[in-house]
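Protein modeling request. Please complete all fields; requests missing the sequence field cannot be processed.
Requester role: graduate student
Desired output: 3D structure, token encoding
Chains: 1
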Amino acid sequence: MTLQQLQYLVALAESNSINQAAQNLFVSQSGISKAIKQLESELGFPLLERSSRGITFTSRGTEFLHDAYSLIKQFHTMQDHYLQTEPQGMITMSITSRYYIFVAKAVAKMANLLKEHNYFIRLQEGKVSDIIQDVATRRSQLGFISYYDTNAEFIQHELERFNLEFHSLCSNQLHVFLSKNHPLAKEPNITLSMLSPYPYIFYDGGNDPYGYTEEVFFPVHPQKSIAVSDRSSMLNIIRHSECYNLGSGWLLEGYSESDLITRPLSLPADTTMQVGWITKRGYMLDAECEQFLKFCQEALDDCCTGSL
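Delivered output (308 residues):
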């Protein structure tokens, strides 16, 4: 097993195409295929299922991929730490988060606070698995995630597996994000059956196991759905269509579009989100991280649901 083989596997997972992975890595398709087949031979089990429709990861392949991600990110973290010299007095912060507006506002407030200093702040938004891997490999000091009762056991197991701690910030009822011109905009409460005629838009979880996703109340057999990978696309599509998304329901002046609204989602089961931050177990926060968390709490206090 080599680092190059793991890099090829990760690139393949991120592009979901041998052709695209080869282009991204500036290598041949045959080189990637040969390397992965050699890795499968060495491991003694298939990582991929190959068909005329393309490739998908096997269940063991998905498990192996998560560990490969961890090793690759740890390698890059070591590179960043040992091969790059930071300027004298540089303040650095690294955060990985779900698509939370309160985190974006906290970063803006940190930038204003540190304007007299040299600093580098890295904010990466993405999948829950990426957040856990970034914090576990110390690529990020803080990670921001949420979970529900339905996937709490899975998330807690993963945090234990990677020696991470969850610190709660708040809890919030599940809401529906809609355009103010949506046919359901005037409804005080919305049910899944009311949403069934409309397109469901959600963040693409890639090859992540179901327990990682925040889309835990994914409508059963949605007839119309759109998967996106960034917040801007999500919000713009909702604004200009009858699409809807399920999430926190938070709106924030200056960070949310004024033509978006949110409504509570009525379900028989508890739909409370537990929102918080994760760190390595026993990790001592520095002064900048402590201040950033205070800004996060302040931004959460400023969030509202309903409309701006």
